[in-house]
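Lecture 7 notes: from sequence to structure.
We start with the chain below.
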Amino acid sequence: MRDGTPFSVSQKYTHLLRAVGQVCLRMNNDTNGIYEIVLAEDRYYRDLITQLQTGLRKLDVATYFVDSDGKVTK
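Predicted structure tokens for the same chain:
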């Protein structure tokens, strides 16, 4: 959410795939790093992460979600 306006589905899709791309780019420079993606708790993000789960596991990338109260879940 920016300025109180929620992201559109298209923006969420782009946001997540850019994050995955950035992780992949950083892996090139540090193959021994720990890589994680943290997203706002959101049904759409969760569904998309489920679709990406096989690839994220192969890349050894953890994902976390943060709700509006600051609670973090996997």
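Points to note: The CA atoms of residues 23 and 29 lie 10 Å apart. The chain has a mean pLDDT of 93.
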